[in-house]
Amino acid sequence: MTVPTSWPDMNFANQTINEFLGNVAASTVTPSGGAVAAIGGASGAALCEMVCIHTIEKDDYTDVRTELTDIRDELGDHRNRLLELADEDSIAVDELQAAFETPSDANRTERLC
Fold it and tell me: How many whole angstroms separate alpha carbon 80 and alpha carbon 64?
C-alpha cells in the first residue's frame, strides 16, 4: 500500500494522544474504527507489559521472572505490530474512500482491484 498524499505523516505512534483523538473526531474518513481498535489493543498490551515489569521487580516472583520477561517482550512486539496495523488500516480506508470518490465505474473498479 502507498501512503495517500492526504496523510503525509501516517504514523499514529508518533502522534500525541490529543492529536490522534482530534483526528478521530474530525470530518475526515480516517482514522476510523480499525485504527482506533488497534490503538486500543496497543494500549492493552502496554498495560500488560507494565504488570509484567512490576511483577518482575518483586522478590516474591523470582520463580516466574524469566517467563514474565519473555511475555513482556512478546507484548512489546504485539504493541508495536498493533500500531503498524493502525497505520495500515488508515491507508486501506483512505484508498477505499478514494476509489468510491472516483467518478467512473471503470476507474473505480481498477482502483479497487
Answer: 24
Q: What are the cell numbers at 23?
A: 483526528
CA 38 distance to own-chain centroid: 4
pTM over 0.90: no
Which one has a higher pLDDT value, 5 or 35? 35
What does the pLDDT average to over 54-73? 96
Which amino acid belongs to residue 49?
Answer: E
Task: State the Cα–Cα distance between residues 20 and 39, nearest whole angstrom.
Answer: 10
b (16+ CB within 10 A) / e for 60-98? eeeeeeeebeebbeebeebbeebbebbbebbbebbbeee
> Are 87 and 39 in contact, with CB atoms under 8 Å apart?
no
d(CA 7, CA 94): 9
